[in-house]
Design goal:
By secondary structure, this protein is an alpha+beta fold. About 35% of the residues lie in helices and about 25% in strands. It has helices spanning about 5-10, 15-30, 100-115, and strands at about 35, 40-45, 50-55, 60-65, 85-90. It has a 5-stranded antiparallel beta sheet. The relative contact order is 0.17.
Length: about 120
């Protein structure tokens, strides 16, 4: 079984650094449970909450499975023409807006408790 740590080892450059940083943050600060699903790291509480997906130009998308239910008060989430999922494209650790991401994760955790779909 592939682990998130093995997934991280298979990445290079900024993708490796970003996924490693976010993985540690999501598991330690938000008590999310990591699991490789669909060949990418997915993070669970009750259900899927978010995932980390490599994107072009050495970036990572932090995507929220129930993004359509999030307020997006921070203005960071993009749907990319998806109906339910919203995400944030990240390209450098130093430019990750952690305070705003933590707000989004907290809202996603509340939604995870309230809605099954």
């Amino acid at each position: 079984m592939k682990t998130v740590e093995n997934f991280i080892l298979g990445l290079d450059g900024q993708q490796k650094a970003i996924v490693s940083y976010l993985h540690q943050h999501l598991t330690e600060n938000h008590d999310l449970i990591p699991k490789i699903s669909f060949n990418i790291p997915m993070y669970y509480k009750r259900k899927w909450v978010c995932y980390l997906n490599p994107i072009k130009n050495d970036g990572i998308e932090l995507a929220f499975v129930k993004g359509h239910r999030l307020s997006n008060d921070q203005g960071l989430l993009k749907t990319k023409n998806r109906k339910r999922i919203s995400g944030i494209d990240l390209y450098e650790i130093r430019s990750i807006p952690m305070r705003q991401i933590d707000e989004i994760v907290q809202e996603a955790l509340i939604i995870d408790q309230l809605f099954t779909i």
